[in-house]
Write a structure and sequence with these properties.
- The complex is a heterodimer of chains A (149) and B (134).
- Chain A is mostly helical and 149 residues long.
- In chain A, 58% of the residues lie in helices and 4% in strands.
- In chain A, helix 1 runs antiparallel to helix 2 and helix 1 runs antiparallel to helix 4.
- Chain B has 134 residues and is α+β, with helices and mostly antiparallel strands.
- Chain B has one domain.
- Chain B is built from 2 helices and 4 strands.
- Chain B has a two-stranded antiparallel ribbon with strand order 1-2.
- The chains are: A mainly alpha (149), B alpha+beta (134).
């Protein structure tokens, strides 16, 4: 019973952690907007979320999809370059991080598109807050169910 | 909580950009400086940025790896009446290009503002996270 009530909470807490991680990756991109040779990165939220939620129940599903999906691993956009699995991925780490391809190449090798990064940052902030509200909502629901008033 | 490292990342960027602003200010201040009798005038300076890993492998800050001097030739103007003029009547000025420095300044100030905004957003999000469940 309790597991049923908290499963939604569990899902949203995982989403919150990943949103925070993506926020941090985008902040790194914005911080390095003027660094020569810096390559912009982004977090594939869909893939990361699938890994985070699917890892508990079916690990076989994950390994099979990784072996067959090498070409598209870590891509949310057609302009992303696919990573071959497991580069620099620590525990729960950055294996779902991809590199973005610049739309306007610059001479110093920096691939940060500041406009896109700022848009991503604002978008991710709103989604982070949305996830927070979902958590608050289900916490309130559980509380009122416990209190029975 | 990985969001706290945003403050480190953006803070390093702000520090690097303010150093860049400092260098621009000193270049602009010395744009019209005249070389002494030894012929050594002020040479424009430029900061070199470098990515530095911070905390987890996903976050990358910035730091100024070095401040390098501009190696373009110093500007010479013909002004025989000037006390610092050489034997041919030329006065050596610094090699700073004020237009480039102004552009550099605008770029640095915009990057600074961007990073401040990132910090503000991260702070708002963290405060809202603190209020979770209330």
């Amino acid at each position: 019973m309790i597991a049923n009530m908290t499963s939604g909470l569990d899902f949203h807490s995982k989403a919150l952690v990943l949103r925070a991680e993506r926020q941090q990756v985008i902040a790194s991109n914005i911080a390095n907007a003027d660094t020569p040779g810096y390559v912009a990165r982004d977090l594939n939220f869909k893939e990361a979320m699938r890994q985070a939620t699917g890892a508990d129940s079916s690990s076989s599903l994950r390994t099979s999809s990784r072996s067959q999906g090498d070409g598209t691993h870590g891509m949310t956009h057609a302009n992303h370059i696919a990573l071959t699995g497991g580069t620099g991925g620590g525990p729960g780490g950055a294996s779902h991080l991809a590199y973005t391809v610049q739309s306007q190449p610059s001479l110093d090798g920096n691939s940060v598109d500041l406009d896109r990064e700022r848009a991503n940052f604002a978008d991710n902030a709103v989604r982070f807050e949305a996830t927070l509200r979902f958590i608050n909502g289900s916490a309130k629901g559980i509380l009122s169910a416990i209190q029975g008033q | 909580m990985s969001m706290f490292s945003i403050f480190n990342v953006s803070g390093s960027a702000i520090s690097a950009q303010s150093q860049r602003l400092n260098v621009v200010a000193s270049n602009l201040a010395n744009a019209d400086a005249v070389a002494g009798p030894d012929g050594k005038g002020y040479k424009g300076r430029q900061v070199i940025f470098e990515t530095v890993p911070m905390g987890s492998d996903a976050s990358a800050g910035v730091r100024v790896s070095s401040v390098q001097e501009n190696n373009q030739p110093l500007r010479k103007m013909h002004n025989p009446g000037h006390p610092s003029a050489d034997a041919q009547g030329y006065v050596t000025h610094s090699n700073v290009n004020p237009v480039e420095e102004m552009v550099n300044m605008i770029s640095a100030s915009r990057s600074y503002q961007n990073n401040v905004e990132v910090m503000n957003t991260a702070k708002t999000l963290l405060l809202k996270t603190l209020q979770m469940g209330q």
